[in-house]
Design goal:
This protein is of the alpha+beta class. The strands form 3 sheets. Strands 1, 2, 3, 4, 6, 7 and 11 form a 7-stranded mixed beta sheet that branches. A hairpin with a 5-residue loop joins strand 6 and strand 7.
């Protein structure tokens, strides 16, 4: 049995829908592009239920004792890092909305590895390459803990970029 687990990071309210939600919480990048952020903090599956089981978290979030606070802290730092570091160009857009899912693993050392893109309409892979670059800039992540041991955690989040008007 693989020790990979799912945690869900989303950039849209309904991550399984291909539609952009009507009520959206957008983040505007430094160069004016927007992407969708969820209204809730990081969503995990049920593997981190007991008090001694801890989902992956940023070093700056480790002092929170409640799961909900750690999760919210993780989500805020994650999206702030994307917002502050992503650089897009209008010339990269070949359609009004670029969308794809990013899948990666937070390994037993807290490192992001195995990054892949699924259901992508990014024909020139410019947006995917930019997400790769930004993911490498994430602050230190502490691994998930299950039964007192570090575990790999598989994560997935959708990315939706809108062509600026």
């Amino acid at each position: 049995v693989s020790q990979s687990r799912y945690c869900l990071l989303t950039l849209c309210v309904n991550c399984f829908s291909q539609e952009i939600p009507e009520k959206k919480d957008t983040l505007i990048t430094k160069n004016g592009y927007e992407f969708i952020k969820p209204k809730t903090a990081l969503e995990n599956d049920t593997i981190f239920n007991s008090p001694n089981e801890i989902e992956p978290r940023f070093l700056n979030c480790d002092h929170f004792t409640h799961k909900e606070h750690r999760s919210k802290c993780f989500s805020e730092i994650f999206y702030e890092t994307i917002q502050n570091n992503i650089r897009l160009k209008k010339s990269w857009f070949h359609t009004e909305i670029i969308k794809f899912d990013v899948v990666f693993i937070i390994n037993k050392l807290g490192e992001i590895e195995g990054i892949s893109f699924v259901e992508s309409n990014d024909e020139n892979h410019k947006f995917e390459n930019e997400i790769l670059r930004v993911l490498k800039k994430m602050p230190k992540i502490l691994p998930g803990i299950k039964n007192g041991k570090a575990v790999k955690v598989r994560c997935k989040f959708p990315v939706r970029f809108n062509l600026p008007k």
